[in-house]
């Protein structure tokens, strides 16, 4: 059965704009009050165009809120010792509040030791084992931007979480697992699914809140969704096959025209066209969760800076 009313479309863009504006106001207050301007440094190794654009956009987003944002771009053949030195220098620099290392690193560099080298109190991505542990222990921590942004979105739309059954598909360190911890904190009952889950559709149909973080275009179909569920689509998948897009979005000339202009289209992990009519609320792609990640990164940078300056983070 399909619900009689249209689902509430959760607008990540609007929420992200509000979050950025609030960060801007807090930065202005901090500086007016004699505080130091927060500073983020995004480190990129190599010249992958998508990563370069992303790193530059994070630095720019910082600048727009009044924080200092810098990107440090190192050559693709940077060796481990040199990268270590750069990260150590940023760790030791008191003016730097947030350090993020853009992933993936080139193949010759093992990521984990570098993620562990970044000081936990400057780890605005929330990937350091100390922050991961603190998250699961319900202690104050910097938590990964994407799932933290999802919680912010749900809260700002007043979506009740307490006591509800949340099912997450995907168990990565950057989305699925921290999403589980954050939803537990909100008193959800949490099921974490992955590629070895038996009868995934049945697990998903138990969800009041279904979070898809899989990396497969349109994977979540109506058979995965209970009527009235809230569906959060974290997936960002670039399609270059027009037929695939047409199958996912039939009778959608706007999407096809945009594809024809760019030669590709971004779609989520949820078959939006078929799933949306079943839901009480759903995030679109684009315009949903993707927008929140950078906004939450700004909040994390501000939080790191406030703590390092001995100031309160209440209200963040
Ligand atoms: P990963 O590839 O690290 O993880 C994918 C997860 O999906 C794995 O846990 C995997 O299971 C699970 N999975 C894969 N296939 C299936 C299947 N057939 N059935 C059930 N589970 C399956 O991806 P990420 O977590 O990094 O990203 C997920 C998606 O979110 C991607 O589209 C990515 O682009 C997007 N993303 C969006 C962000 C944003 O800002 N909105 C930020 C980060 C990611 P297993 O562990 O068993 O292999």
Fold and architecture overview:
There is one protein chain. The protein has 316 residues and is of the alpha/beta class. The chain is built from twelve helices and eleven strands. The model has no long low-confidence stretch (mean pLDDT 96). It folds into two domains: 32-119, Rossmann fold, CATH 3.40.50; 144-291, 3-Layer(aba) Sandwich (Rossmann fold). The strands form three sheets. A six-stranded parallel beta sheet has the order 1-11-8-7-5-6. It has a three-stranded parallel beta sheet with strand order 3-2-4, sandwiched between helices. It is globular and about 55 Å long. Helix content is 42%, strand content 15%. NADPH dihydro-nicotinamide-adenine-dinucleotide phosphate binds next to helix 12.
Q: Main beta sheet, described?
A: 6 strands, parallel
The CATH homologous superfamily of the largest domain: NAD(P)-binding Rossmann-like Domain
**What share of residues is helical?**
40-55%
What is the global morphology?
globular
Low-confidence stretches: none
- Give the strand order, joined by hyphens, for the main sheet: 1-11-8-7-5-6
Query: Compute the gyration radius: what is it?
Result: 20 Å
Beta-strand content estimate: 5-15%
Q: Main attributes?
A:
15% strand; binds NADPH dihydro-nicotinamide-adenine-dinucleotide phosphate; 6-stranded parallel beta sheet; Rossmann fold; 316 residues
């Amino acid at each position: 059965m399909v619900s009689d009313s249209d689902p509430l479309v959760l607008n990540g863009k609007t929420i992200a704009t509000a979050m950025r504006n609030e960060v801007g106001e807090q930065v202005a207050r901090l500086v007016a009050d004699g505080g130091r301007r927060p500073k983020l440094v995004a480190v990129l190794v190599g010249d992958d165009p998508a990563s370069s654009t992303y790193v530059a956009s994070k630095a720019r987003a910082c600048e727009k809120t009044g924080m200092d944002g810098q990107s440090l771009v190192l050559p693709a053949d940077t060796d481990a010792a040199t990268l270590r030195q750069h990260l150590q220098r940023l760790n030791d620099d008191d003016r730097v509040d947030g350090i993020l290392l853009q992933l993936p690193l080139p193949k010759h560099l093992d990521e984990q030791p570098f993620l562990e080298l970044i000081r936990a109190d400057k780890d605005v991505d929330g990937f350091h084992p100390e922050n991961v542990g603190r998250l699961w222990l319900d202690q104050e921590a910097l938590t990964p931007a994407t799932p933290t942004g999802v919680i912010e979105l749900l809260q700002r739309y007043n979506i009740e979480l307490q006591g509800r059954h949340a099912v997450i598909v995907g168990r990565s360190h950057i989305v699925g697992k921290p999403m589980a911890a954050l939803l537990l904190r909100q008193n959800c009952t949490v099921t974490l699914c992955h590629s070895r889950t038996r009868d995934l559709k049945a697990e998903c149909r138990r969800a009041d809140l279904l979070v898809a973080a899989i990396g497969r275009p349109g994977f979540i179909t109506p058979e995965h969704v209970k009527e009235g569920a809230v569906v959060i689509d974290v997936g960002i998948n670039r399609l270059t096959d027009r037929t695939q897009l047409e199958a996912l979005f039939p009778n959608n000339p706007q999407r096809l025209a945009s594809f024809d202009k760019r030669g590709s289209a971004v779609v989520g992990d949820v078959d939006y066209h078929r799933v949306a009519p079943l839901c009480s609320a759903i995030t679109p792609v684009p315009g949903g969760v993707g927008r929140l990640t950078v906004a939450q990164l700004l909040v994390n940078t501000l939080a790191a800076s406030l703590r390092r300056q001995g100031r309160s983070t209440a209200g963040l």
